[in-house]
Batch of 2 targets.
Target 1
Amino acid sequence: MYRIQLEKFEGPLDLLLFLIQRDEIDILDIPIARITDEYLGHVRLMETIDLDGVADFLYLASMLISIKVRMLLPQQEEESEPLDPRQELVERLLEYRRYKEAAGRLGMQHDERSRFFTRGEASASEFASMPEHLVNTSTYNLISALRRILVDAPEEPTLAIAAREYSLAELRSFVLEAVAVRGVMSFAVLVRLKSKKFIIGAFLAVLEMAQLGQVVIRAATSENDFLVGPTTANG
Amino acid sequence: MDSKRQDELMQAVEALVFAADQPVKASQIARIIGEVAAEQAPEDKVIESVVARLNARYEAQGTALRIHFWAGGYRMATTEAVAPYLQAFFRGDRGRRLTRPLMETLAIICYRQPATKPEVDHIRGVDSDYALRRLLDYGLIAFAGRAEAIGRPILYATTDRFLEAFGLSDLGALPNLREVEALLGDPSFNQAQARMLMVNGLHDSEGEAL
């Protein structure tokens, strides 16, 4: 067994940028053949250590090889000025570098901020203890609760009134208004005495809003129900 | 305003900012003061000047507290001078800094918001699923609707918590994203090639997803 300490790269662009900076290469005039060889050398080394992590690096490897091939082919005579095959790569590298730098500056900003301590949460960098923003009940529980509620729900009224159609948007605002006024509440109570159509629609609206973080879903004491609440209430 | 009323106002602002565990907006403070005193709520400007006076007083008295303007509201925090004591006190329970993938993802979202996952993935060249989840868990980013693109991808934007955690009053306080020209600020910079890049790429690629 042997171990190799590899420089930790966040991704293929990060690795390529490292090679370019290490060799003091002009980013606008990358010697593709040489860089491709170096890049592939690194990727092969990574393959021997961590096969999973290497997948992200292969796309850029194929891009490099394709550029290398195009650079070797004779330029075609066209009326427009010849396009440098390296252009897309350079654009992506520069774009990535801008954000990498921005990330560095944000990190410093965060370090500065963490020298000020506030009440409440002991410190601003205490991310580990954030309240979970989540759904802590399983899908099966939700479905079984829905089934139970539907069994109890009244059939569509048989009176000769045209069945009312509900749009998802309508149901979303119905749910949002209810939880805004009443806080965390039982889904069964929310749709009490509503038609099956309405209940199913409201259920879908709740799921969608939970995914978007507009409401939270929590397990209720009964398996036949669950709780819906506004995102602001953490209690 | 008589000086007794003035003192009351300062005490009220100080108490609210002290007790709150998140930034309190001037308008919120004003509304509460108006409610309790059963009179016209003071203007936001008044609250602002009260905070400035509180800070001046803290400074003059040499206290270890200051009121900062973060995420559009007022937040009381300890001074930098006493940071070593607090760091020693909280050693162990303090969370670490964000990892590099998280910082990169956060930077992309904060400068391009609202941004989609495909946009973030493209810029980073790697899948950002895990990073986005963590940032959501930490409350630094939030869902901001869906894009009109194919598949209606979810849009992400930074939160007030992000502003507070990074000590920013608002998004305008972010340092500017460096321009490509500055990035290429070396003498070997090829004008013709740079122009080609400007025309075809970076500047107008700002808005598109992929």
Target 2
Amino acid sequence: MSDPRKITRLIQLMGLAGVVLLFLVPVIGSRALVQDLFGVLTLLILAQNWNLLAGFAGLVSVGQQAFVGVGAYAMFACVILLGMDPLVGIAVGGVAAMLLAIPMAFFSFRLAGAYFAIGTWVVAEITRLCFAQWKALGGGTGTSLPKGTTKTMFGVPEIKSWLGGSSSAASDALTYWLALILALATLIAAYLFLKSRMGLGLQALRDNEEAARSVGVNPTRLKAWVFMLTAFGTGLCGALLFIQITRVTPEAAFSVLDWTAFVIFITVIGGIGTLPGPIIGVIVFYFLQRTLADYGTVYLIVLGCLGIAVMLFARRGLWGLFTEKTGIELLSLRQLPPTENQAR
Amino acid sequence: MIWIDTLVQGVLLGGLYALFAAGLSLVFGVMRLVNLAHGDLIVLAAFVILSVATALNLNPFVAAVIAIPVMFAVGWVLQTYLLNRVLGDDILPPLLVTFGLSVVIQNGLLELFSADSRKLTAGSIEAESVSLGGVTVGVMPLLTFVSAVLVIFALNQIFYRTKLGRAFRATSDDREAVGLMGIRPNNVFAIATGIAMVVATIAALYLGIRANFDPSIGPARLLYAFEAVIIGGLGSLWGTLAGGVIIGVSQALGAAINPEWQILSGHVAFVVVLLVRPRGLFPRSKD
């Protein structure tokens, strides 16, 4: 068991088995479990996106709730105002979030370093206050999806006849699978992106901006791309979340605690700047929440203290500690030197 | 006439925002630290004043005098044992540590004091007003604004006229060189944060008398404070006062048009100023 490569192989196989098991949960598990895991997976998607922003592009955004909220509201607008299927609304939600990211980047990229965090937060507040003025979607008090929308959603009747059980259970299964697919797709996309030429440029910028610029990496353009792409992913996730919640209010859709603070702690505790980090973080978060559920806000205090402790003593989080102690790496972004015939 | 009245109320409100912001401006000027827990520390100070006032049955102004050394100590301890450890070239650790601190303080206060709205009661002075050339203003808002001007004047005096201020400026310019001159940067930072918490306590006093507060209102105050600092230009204390006034006036004007637009127009003013003047109105130096 001393060879890290063998253990790495083993963990990879276990991960693959885990994914298969996760796909089977709606078939073999209880509905409560499906709903719980849906919450975990959506937080994981948000955390992966924030990790790309803060951990790899150095863009510490505290305004991710803007994209969740816009995604959710765009989906509601599609369903309520245009009578579209909620699943189409999800795609529109992602695009709407990406469109918001353009002016947001234009403004907040002017703010250097730490002030970027404040800039994104202010833009998220402005967006929340504007959506609270949208009277067709309930203004400040919000609105609900029309009764039965999720039960007749594309794919739900088929899943119902296949799994048996109620329409609500079938719609939970559908949103769960979508969340699982989105989480996997985000992970794979992030891996491929970071391995690509652009991703390499991004990591070069993080390690030494001057040196990266001198070999032709354009920081603003690269960072703007990451900002837009993660906004897209976050918007998709926001729309998906609110299909399951079925009710939207400006406070819930643009909640800085639910969609940004939790996500930051998850990423930091798991390991910021590593791909497996958010996965570890979301598992820790889930068990912490379950264990301390009876003690009110205590789990938030514990979460905050854990985040601070990680920043003080282990900046690469739990995953970073694990890698350091065992030499096991998963989804490693290390680039091997080119071989003879690859080198020009 | 109603517009002049709105304008004056806005300027006076800006005084409160400048008080929120002055501590942040000082801390940023000395150590380039962006403290995301500042709003919650102001709320913490308000609860300290409230506790002292209730326990000893004192007027909040007297209670604040007792709270000031307590909060100075809080700032000193926080800087010495937590924030000094994460200061450095990497912006991520200080941001995330202060963000964590913000969540911890907010929920700690929630556990201790519940989510109920509280208020500091200062007696008859709250209802008194004076007439200033046709515009009637409340004594408390006026006192808030005058305090803001005095606090910023005092901070400027400390910064440019005292030995401590010289240490602040020197440490801000070159941390290593200052060490060679026999000054401990970490001590200087601890004193700066302590002073910032003294200003936060003064801000908390006026916040608590002016309106209800509860543990959750910190982040919103933080945003107003940061907007004031950035509008004013990083490192300029008088600029921070100007920034506070701009936010206050925009909020008052927005509220006069439609009460729902109060907060929104303050944020929009911030965005507009930054689009026109990316480095704020009175930037001190290249940061």
